[in-house]
Amino acid sequence: MENVKVFSIIIAVFSVLSVESVGLKDLKTCNFGAVYNFGDSNSDTGGGSAAFWPAGKPCGETFFGRPVGRGCDGRLIIDFIAEHLGLPHLSPYLDSIGTSFRYGANFAIGGSTIRPQNESMSLNGVSPFSLDIQIVQFDQFKDRTGHFYNRSYPRHRRNLPRPEDFSKALYIFDIGQNDIAAGLRKKNDSAFHASVPDIVDQLAKAVQNLYEHGARTFWVHNTGPIGCLPVSLHYHDIKPEELDEQGCLKAQNAYSMEFNRQLKSRVIKLREELPHAALTYVDIYAAKYELIGNAKKQGFVEAANICCGFHEDEIQVYCGHKQNINGTEIYAGSCENPSDFISWDGVHYTEAANRWVAHRIINGSFSDPPLPINHACHIP
C-alpha cells in the first residue's frame, strides 16, 4: 500500500510540473464541437443493445433508472467526458430510436476487438464489429450525414452533425481489452506476444484513416489491469504466488502491460507520421490500478467484490440472470449500494468507479502529454 501511495504522489507531482512546463496557462481551451468514440463495452452506450440483445435490469439503475444499453449501473467514463466538455451523452451509431448525432456519435460495441477474431458473439462474446468495421461505419456516417445536411431544410439538420465540426472533434479510442482476453483464452503466450505489434498497428491505421479524412485530435486509452478483474479472480483456482501486492493476477496483468508498452510506442511514432495531429496517450491502467490499491481509502469495499451477480460456493450466475440451483431459482441482482463497489458485474466498473477514473484522466494526470482534455487539441 505504501508503494501505491508513493506512486500516486510521484504521478501528481510529475503532472503538475509537466503541465506547467508545456505552458498550460497560455493555451486556449479547445472548442470540441463533437466527440466520436470507438471501443468495446467499456464505452458502449447502447450499440451492443441495438445490434444484438438489449442490456436488461438492473443495469442503469443508479443514474438512468432503467437499462440504457450500458453494462453498468449508470454512467461510463465516456459519459463523464462528454459532460465535462459540455456535450450530451453520445448516441450509439446503430441506435435508430431517439438519436441525435449533432454533437458526435459512439461506434463502440461490447465485445469488440482491434483485430478481427475468428470467433463469434454466441460462442464467447466476441463482437463482429471490430475496429476496422467501426472505422468503415464512421466513414459512411460522415459521407451520408454530409450529404443530407447539405440538402435538408434547417429544421431537419438539428440531429445531424455540422460538416465543419468533424475537423474540430475529439476522437477517442477505448479498445484493446478484448484482444488481450482473446490471448488469455487461447493460453499461448508466444502467440499473443507475436500478435501485439499487429494489433497496435491496426489501431494506428484507424487513426491514420481518420487523419486522412480531416480528424486532428486523438485521445487514446490504453487498457486496464485485466488481471484485477474480479471475474478472473472468481473463476480461477489461484495460488498465492500468482498474485501481486494488490491481489491481482500477475500473469494476466503482464499481458496488459506489454500491450500498453507497445501501444504507447506506436502513439509516439504516430506523432512523427501525422505532424498536424494532437495525440494523447491516456494511462487507464495506472488510474485503475491506483483506485484498486486505494479502494478502502477512497470509500469503496474490497476491489475484488462484485456488486451485481451471484458468486458463492463455486456457483456463478451473471448479473441480471436467473439460474435454477438444486430446485431453487437464483436471481443475480445488484447489491444494495452500488456506489460502494468498484466492480459492477465482475468485468465492468460501477458508475462511482467510472467517475473516479474519469475525473483523474480528464485533468491530464495520467496523460502523455500531461494536458487536460480541454487542451488536448494543442500539439506541445
UniProtKB/TrEMBL annotation:
Belongs to the 'GDSL' lipolytic enzyme family. This is GDSL esterase/lipase At5g14450-like. Pfam families: Lipase_GDSL. Keywords: Glycoprotein, Hydrolase, Signal. Residues 1-21 form the signal peptide. One of its GO terms (molecular function) is hydrolase activity, acting on ester bonds. It comes from the Eukaryota. It comes from Gossypium raimondii. The keyword Electron transport does not apply.
